[in-house]
Design a protein that fits this description.
Blueprint (H helix, E strand, L loop, with lengths): L6 H16 L1 H6 L38 H4 L8 H12 L5 E8 L5 E7 L7 H6 L4 E6 L7 H15 L10 E5 L4 H4 L37 H13 L3 E8 L8 E4 L8 H21 L4 E2 L14 E3 L7 H8 L3 E7 L4 H21 L1 H12 L5 E3 L2 E5 L4 E12 L6 E15 L1 E7 L2 E3 L3 E4 L4 H10 L4 E2 L4 E15 L10 E14 L4 E4 L5 H8 L25 H14 L1 H10 L3 H4 L2 H10 L14 E3 L1
Parallel strand pairs: 3-4, 3-5, 5-9, 6-7, 8-14
Antiparallel strand pairs: 1-2, 2-4, 6-9, 10-15, 11-14, 12-13, 16-20, 16-21, 17-20, 18-19
Helix pairs in contact: 6-11, 9-11, 9-12, 15-16
Length: 615
Amino acid sequence: MRFKHLSAIILVSLASSSAIANDETASQLAEPKIANTYINDKILPPSIEWHGKSEALLLSADDEWATPFEQNGLKTSPNYDDTFIWLDKLIAQTDKLKKVSLGKSPQGRDIWMIVASAEGAETPEALAENNKPSVLVQAGIHSGEIDGKDAGMMLLRDLVLGGKGDLLDKANLLFVPIFSVDGHERSTQYNRVNQRGPINMGWRTTANNLNLNRDYAKADTLEMQHMLHAINEWQPNLYIDVHVTDGIDYQYDMTFGYNLPQGLSPASYAWLEKIYRPAIESALTSQGHIPGPLIFAIDNTDITKGMSLWNASPRYSNGYGDARHLPTILIENHSLKPYKQRVLGTYVMLEATLKTLGMQATKLKSAIKQDKFRYPPRVTLTWKEAQQKQGWDFKGIEYRMEKSVISGNDIVRWTGVPKLYPNLPVVGDTVPDISVTRPSAYYIPPQWTEVIERLQIHGIRMTRLHQPTEIKLQRYELSEPKFRSKDYEGRQMVEAEVRLESVETELASGTVKIDTHQPLGDLAILLLEPQSPDSLLQWGFFNPIFTRTEYIENYAVEPLATQMLKDDPKLQLAFDKALKDEEFAADPKARLRWFYKRSPYYDDQYQKYPVLRQK
């Protein structure tokens, strides 16, 4: 089938590319051309008019197979129903595409995944039989950031009807057009005020007002539970999470990254950094885009302070991928670039991903296997900042500071004029802080059903004891719990001081055992070690252990304390020593509590972490 391409745009693109090649300096100094496309254009920094070779990917609006994005002036994105009406029409043309529901959202919408393979596989088992690597691409985890949906629809069309079907000869594509389906339908032109299109954008959070890209570790949302189940069932070799960023203005339109070499998947990192990034950046550059690493300024009002290198924890997609050894790429398109530019850049990146994955599958699979069975003897839970040896020649945008009559503060005014900031400092969380020795196993008492269920959702292997078992283990005693003053993502988070002690205990029948020598053993450690920032303890799954439910009256503890001192001379010495603390000595309740804690009546499970470790 032949398509009616936008030939005028192609000519403009080629002319523009030639001008840039002939006179790069003039291009850098060109006055920005102000767009007037979106309702918020007047309050955003100026938009530089863009043309690139990737415009040749577009079909004319009246073409039979133009996507809704192409039909409506490259400024809109279709709603949920129109998205799948168009996709269903495409799927009906081929055996290569299958539509699979990952499950229902809280408001009852299907979270659809399109399975694209040369063999037309529609089950995980059938897909595995073709022995090709698979990439799972999800769009709309924040549903206002929907570039990936429209790019993916164009790519699927071209895989089927546009002569690009050979991309499926060596790789499979699993494509989720809309992850946060309920948030997607909470759509108006007034969402995402910092973003330049599409005209109508979905909401950042789910119908329950939860952020899916904070939910990977705790897996509270129904949507995330469906996604984790899909990852376990379909076993992709690569995972791409498409976002649109906020923050400062700069020249890059496509930025992307992944976790660091210091993390839990160093072999996968090496593949991403040495093989994947060069291939993708080359493809984007050749099509007129400006790719770069993820961008997080240390100070949005002073670019010269440098950039922050992000080491994500498992609540985020890329941090979760690092923990479970699934190479995960976070795409952050630049919100101030026009929607057309961002969609086309995403298309180029996804197409180049399929090519690279197909050609480099053996090396990627080898890297994943190395990471899954590495079993480091120590696991880092938290990291400290350090300035990196390598600086960054940053392709920024010129700006000036102005005194605001509205706020009274100095504010940034971006000019739209490109400016290079040479050798900016880069600071990253790359120095190990809190680390633990790797236990051989964890044991979870059977009453902690919610915790066990979440670990099962992640796909972590476990067994159960079928009879009571006496065993010597390690247990954390917690103290000084500090609860967040406000709920975060629907939970009351908590941190506590820890002390590890050896205990001989009897484990009840039904106790769950989790061996850490398994592919998801590192993930289990980050979820179960109490000092891990995304541990289930810190997310509040174990908050009942911080509640005292039995007490002793003063009239009982007084004679009890007298008898205890009489029976134990060493206790008297310890009490005398404690009284040297003037604050303690002046606090009658503290003095009585001191005896109660040392009596046989005290709750021996209070602030004792119920998950036990085996050396």
